[in-house]
Design brief:
The chain is α+β, with helices and mostly antiparallel strands and about 150 residues long. About 35% of the residues lie in helices and about 30% in strands.
Length: about 150
């Protein structure tokens, strides 16, 4: 049986509980991750941030969240695909949608950060889209929890 990726859908309202269930690892990786997600969902719901949701066979398969920073840079603050939906184009589609959102905001560049532990997953996806790994921030979220910074002009 073949799985079908639904088109990603721009969100003007995020069901926090649904997204939280998909991103249940956030509090483990990032101190205050759950509180941050509550704030970001509120930002989406009030138009201060953007979200895209992807579904495969009707099930939530991925989410991306982004926000325009005062510096004129667009930050993709979340780009996550459920393990059972990977290698199906979900991440690529979510990334394209975030790049479009940044362009619509007039961003001078777009950036995304990710734990070095997921570098192997991020590098191929991001490099195909024109991102470059420009830095690694040691101990960004605690001892031994390094964060890579990727930028796309």
């Amino acid at each position: 049986m073949t799985s079908t990726l639904s088109a990603t859908v721009p969100q003007t309202h995020v069901r926090y509980e649904e997204v939280r269930d998909l991103l249940d690892f956030l509090p483990v990786l990032y101190p205050g991750g759950d509180e941050w997600l509550v704030r970001r969902a509120r930002d989406v719901n009030t138009g201060r941030a953007v979200a895209r949701i992807a579904r495969v066979d009707g099930e939530l398969a991925g989410v991306s969240l982004g926000v325009m920073k005062p510096s004129g840079r667009f930050k993709i603050s979340t780009l996550f695909v459920a393990p059972n939906a990977r290698k199906r184009g979900v991440g690529s589609q979510l990334l394209i949608e975030m790049l479009d959102a940044g362009q619509n905001y007039g961003a001078v560049e777009t950036y995304i950060t990710g734990a070095t532990t997921v570098r192997a997953h991020l590098v191929p996806l991001l490099c195909r889209a024109g991102f470059r790994l420009i830095a690694t921030e040691p101990n960004r979220y605690g001892e031994g929890r390094d964060e890579d910074v990727f930028v796309r002009p």
